[in-house]
Amino acid sequence: MNNQKTKKLYEFRKVAILIAICLVFTILLPGVFLTWSNIRSILYSVSLTGIMICGATFAVLIGGIDRTVSGNAAVAGACCCSLLLSGDGSMGSTVLAILAGLGCGILSGLFHGLVLSRFDIPAFLMTLATNQVLYGIVQYITQNKLINVMNAKAFNTIGSARILGIPVPVYILLICFLVSYVVLNHTVYGRNLYSVGGNREASKLSGINCRKVICIAYMISGFMGALSGLILSSMNQQASATQATGYENDVLAAIVVGGISLRGGSGTLQGAMFGAFLIGIISNGLRLLGIDAIYHDLVKGVIIIAAIAFDMYSSYSMSGMKKRGPFRRKASSAE
User: Fold this and answer.
1) pLDDT digit string (tens) for 86-105?
2) CATH code of 200's domain
């Protein structure tokens, strides 16, 4: 009986963590937290990081990392808004501006894929440096000024419209998640991606074009980053030189919390989305509680650590292994 309960706990541990945190906030905020308007607010806020995560997961699964998700978002937003400002406001010019913004993200991903698959450069350092370059490009485009596109009604509808009471960005997140899930779990490319992340040399010997797999992974990440940047610009009806700053940290935290190995080859997109919702729910709850913003990172970090500890404990319990205590003396061969 206990084994069955443990197995069920293991299978639904991430859902259990989310439910537990939601129950805590519901008790602390009766009639405020568990309302349709607040749930919609959580979904709305998670949609941006969620879309970025759908792309960045590809880069992490191949054993890399992409810290340019925020830079790609900023460049895409600035490029799109500047073209909208200089356009005639027609649907055709709006579509071209959106495609140009998405193209910036794809080109950025292609550049990273080609360099990282060709040269032995740590992906963390590479993307960290190019993220600064991307923000430099944004500063040049915007001239450190806001680019307002309040008159671009068709573009602004993306971030403000609702369907059945649910914001459009949430539907975009759902589409991105479903497409990414299918690609990772039900395509040859997805199997090759996990293989390259698990053992690149063995993948080469088995005939997998590792360079192609890596390039596509970073292009997907760049595309998703750019898409989230366009949605953010649509929400704010403007683009700025500091747009999406700091989003890369939330994306990386969500991926790690979700159980995806930074070494590559292990983890699921569902786990990464769990991390996104965990961080989103915690941020929302802390804001509703009126906790000063300077303490948000502290409280959020403690809760995330506790969630990871519970996840690891439940996983370890299912393994059936017994852990040797940290202060227990190792038995010698003579004993």
Assistant:
1) 887 788 889 999 999 999 99
2) 1.10.3470
